[in-house]
Amino acid sequence: MGDDSEWLKLPVDQKCEHKLWKARLSGYEEALKIFQKIKDEKSPEWSKFLGLIKKFVTDSNAVVQLKGLEAALVYVENAHVAGKTTGEVVSGVVSKVFNQPKAKAKELGIEICLMYIEIEKGEAVQEELLKGLDNKNPKIIVACVETLRKALSEFGSKIILLKPIIKVLPKLFESREKAVRDEAKLIAVEIYRWIRDALRPPLQNINSVQLKELEEEWVKLPTSAPRPTRFLRSQQELEAKLEQQQSAGGDAEGGGDDGDEVPQIDAYELLEAVEILSKLPKDFYDKIEAKKWQERKEALEAVEVLVKNPKLEAGDYADLVKALKKVVGKDTNVMLVALAAKCLTGLAVGLRKKFGQYAGHVVPTILEKFKEKKPQVVQALQEAIDAIFLTTTLQNISEDVLAVMDNKNPTIKQQTSLFIARSFRHCTASTLPKSLLKPFCAALLKHINDSAPEVRDAAFEALGTALKVVGEKAVNPFLADVDKLKLDKIKECSEKVELIHGKKAGLAADKKEFKPLPGRTAASGAAGDKDTKDISAPKPGPLKKAPAAKAGGPPKKGKPAAPGGTGNTGTKNKKGLETKEIVEPELSIEVCEEKASAVLPPTCIQLLDSSNWKERLACMEEFQKAVELMDRTEMPCQALVRMLAKKPGWKETNFQVMQMKLHIVALIAQKGNFSKTSAQIVLDGLVDKIGDVKCGNNAKEAMTAIAEACMLPWTAEQVVSMAFSQKNPKNQSETLNWLSNAIKEFGFSGLNVKAFISNVKTALAATNPAVRTAAITLLGVMYLYVGPSLRMFFEDEKPALLSQIDAEFEKMQGQSPPAPTRGISKHSTSGTDEGEDGDEPDDGSNDVVDLLPRTEISDKITSELVSKIGDKNWKIRKEGLDEVAGIINEAKFIQPNIGELPTALKGRLNDSNKILVQQTLNILQQLAVAMGPNIKQHVKNLGIPIITVLGDSKNNVRAAALATVNAWAEQTGMKEWLEGEDLSEELKKENPFLRQELLGWLAEKLPTLRSTPTDLILCVPHLYSCLEDRNGDVRKKAQDALPFFMMHLGYEKMAKATGKLKPTSKDQVLAMLEKAKANMPAKPAPPAKATSKPMGGSAPAKFQPASAPAEDSISSSAEPKPDPKKAKAPGLSSKAKSAQGKKVPSKTSLKEDEDKSGPIFIVVPNGKEQRMKDEKGLKVLKWNFTTPRDEYIEQLKTQMSSCVAKWLQDEMFHSDFQHHNKALAVMVDHLESEKEGVIGCLDLILKWLTLRFFDTNTSVLMKALEYLKLLFTLLSEEEYHLTESEASSFIPYLVVKVGEPKDVIRKDVRAILNRMCLVYPASKMFPFIMEGTKSKNSKQRAECLEELGCLVESYGMNVCQPTPGKALKEIAVHIGDRDNAVRNAALNTIVTVYNVHGDQVFKLIGNLSEKDMSMLEERIKRSAKRPSAAPIKQVEEKPQRAQNISSNANMLRKGPAEDMSSKLKIMYRTYRM
Length: 1473
Known about the structure:
- By secondary structure, the chain is mainly alpha-helical.
- The protein contains 84 helices and no strands.
- Residues 250-263, 502-582, 825-848, 1087-1154 and 1425-1473 have low confidence and may be disordered.
């Protein structure tokens, strides 16, 4: 009884831990009462029991345990801190409760697990329950499975992750315990209720009897979609809403939710990936090349077995795909072709999107192999190409498919059209944009007129499918020339089409298992909804770039998708008539006379060839009146222009008659249905008269009217070729002038750039200056539309001519192409254009790019070249890369087909020789510019490996990789990069360099996008990992990127993704998310984006990034204003602040503005002294290098992190020079207000400025020198003295800049050296400058010698170190220098010494050659000076000089004594020459 009374007095928490079971029972009962009384879930009382709850559930006494379980359940339900106990409590439930014989204990244990799920700890609970399945006790296994089943039944498949459960199901079905098997069956039925047929493939290999039983149970399930009956705490409102719906009897909305829920489970995702590359036979690559077909068959059969696995692990399949492609393309045995095609099908279905990078290599080969007619081969090829299609996008393979459409083989044409039809069935109206539809329709329209009926039928089917997908409104403009019979046939096909995109995704993998048609399996749903989304890639990509490339829609209208300009997207039916008239037959002169006489007065016909000019003039007047009164449909245009061309025709000698004749031509073209046939009759005469002083304007007017009638592209090509077939320079120049104006009036679309460039080159080579000037003007107009890429065609011109072209381009920079004013009424309908504004810019931008003539270089990428690039010897590899660069340079613009080059270049990105890596990156940049938007098909196989290079340890390699990625992204848009898992896999790599560069890049690009692929969510877990990275820079970059991820994904998705994090990490990340939520920028709106770019053509858009990234365009344009003011004097902080204020808008978040309000330099006590000690003790690198290496930069960043504001440090170490300019502007601004901080960080500031001396950008260097002048002025005013460490780490690099070729820089450096003498002894400066005289740079040697002379002049002989004798001997050596400036500087310096020191100078300089001595004596003699003051006097007067200079910051050097100084300076300047 004594014991009993003792524990009764204990507090509740101690009772719960007591060794006596009665005490514990009493403690649990009291705890339960306390828990039920606490109303506030955040009460501190809950925390007292935090460590005890596990003991509640694991008590060794069964009776006590039951009470503990009851208390634990109430605790978990009500305590806000309960989530922290999830892992240990659920683990205790699994191991100590589920094995209890009492059913009540098990029920409470299950209820506790479900309660933890309700409080958002589902993943942790599931993890512990799955661990319990490995327990040897079958009771525990059964209870765990039952708990999972109940959780799934109540919470649904969105909360309970099915993949890990399905993974262990086969194992449960194999259990020896019937209870386990029965429970496995129950959970399999429950899972099937949620995901339906997606469960079939993972269970295909279980016992057939069990499978049959499952099938029977599955059939009994209701077909209606299931709904969760229990909700998470965060979803309580949804629960209430559902109850209201049920009570009202309406469940439409619930049904909608469920409809969204079911398709999210993809059978493919539930499968385990199998690694097959290591399982390939060792001799596979030898056998596949064997001469015996049996050996090749063996190799293929081995692969076929491996690729039957429904899900394959990602890897480098390039060699395997290459081998299979070779068999498909070149093997003569059709059986092996079919087998290789099946292997490709298996790879595509098993890898899905990961196969996309190889699609571009394989598609052309498969399409061309359709020439085989054997059904089994055709079927295998069809299955292969259908499966491959789902791994990529229609945009990516469009070029290859369209190229094959021109093949002469009818079977190839037929099968290609059928493939296009099947591909279209996966599309929707939004995923098949006009930019993609236009070229396909143009190619298919040719096929509907093919002689082979099977080709025609296939083309009809493809066009019918397109019509079904996007609707008549989108397709009809392309069908303007199609006659009614064919149009009806297309519509008939359209009605029969069944689209695939509506099907569910769950059927895929099981169809693959049953294998009736593997390729069709993939097509019908392996990627179901997911893949149809991926096909949408082409639209958002170009749309993102559209405003940069083209301001408005109208200029796009003339793209020649088919002869006669049928590619117009907004064409009226009337235009169809016009295009038919283009092929109007040529009429005989007799027929023309007959038709003309029917509409013209008889006298008019008779007087056409009268010898009296007045009669001819009267005739023309009548002719004009008749034409003006004619109706369009009645006007015989060809007959009328034939009459005008009748003798004397275009040889008319009277200018009045000729003017009238030309005006009539314009009238006929404007008022009638004017055909190209009619135009060809008159154009030659018009070109002949265009240079005429009196008739030229009329000729131009007529040509413009014809251009409106027959489209500018055709007219311009005819006119230009006619002009250059003549020798009259006036005609040539005026034709080019007319074309320049016509392009502005009509827009640029459809013009044959290649033909014009050829003629422009001819014009540039002309001897007549007017022709050259007209050609340059035309180039300027073309530049507005084509952009900087136009210059590439003229790089081989003479420098003088090229400078004129550049000057013309310079004028056009920043200008927008004018909106077309002509050619609109006849070739577009406003309704269509206005209705589809979203697509207009897209088409426009693509058109201009498509107009550039592109060269096919695949034939130059030979196997020898590829083997060279992969050679073991780095020199040979370099030769190969040089050859590739040469090929691309020569071609200028290239077709997307580049053979095996991507694989070869990809290998070089991992080269051990970093120089070759950089060269490869440069080639890839060239490739992006040369290939244009078509480069997007290489993003997966070549673009992602460039991202990998961002993790290189070398700063210069990373910078090159970043520049390359930006060059690619500029051409492709961001969609291709963000699609799939590739980017998230890169971010997953724990490489700090890669992470910080990639996150920085994403932070720059994401804010510019209006939408992103859903795959962006895959990067979020790795983003959270980066937020906790050990590397500070990675953490900073991750924090910077967070708001931009949230901008696209939303706070809810981002918060939900924290579920898998550890509790401590989750809390930190959620806090960061809250912070980022406040700073989250809005998505860019389409109109704002269009206007944010200053141009309509692609020119300036591409031009800008050459000097600065797009994000800096605002700040950089605002910055130059304050610069001159900042340069004037140090006391301009207010103006500098205004400059800084202008930079602020370029930043995205308000938080950053707040961060910038504090001091930029933080005073760390004894920080500088400690850094000097570290350097002396060799704990850090000594600041001594020829060129700065990465480790020096990293060291400086580390040292600055403690005493420089983080945001300023980011600017200072940014890869873009514009940010350095900003940093310098801020430093100038804070110079006066933060004197103490500047002095405390002086050593670091000077070191950072030395890095800027190695930059190639002049503006940064100028600003750095300006800052230094202000800095040393401040230091002298503060009477600060440079330390030895500061001087030795700065002066040598400053001395190097004294040899700069630009005078203004040399002057600034000399001024800084001058001011430094006020804060550092001149005698110590002397050796540093003396060292500069040993440079190979003659300017540097000369300037250093002059500076030495100034030092001696100002401070006397005592500055000469180590001794005057040694110093003068070194100076005298330069009297014999090859460079005249160096010789003069050396002579002048010694003359200065002579003027100070007298004849003793000859003893000090030692022996000189006779020639040098005579030069020196002559110079001294000419100086006619004798020393008039002792050096001692100078030294004495030095303090006075210093005082004078320090009192006036802007004074430059003055002599120590007025009388001495003036004389010496006159002499010195006289003899500097």
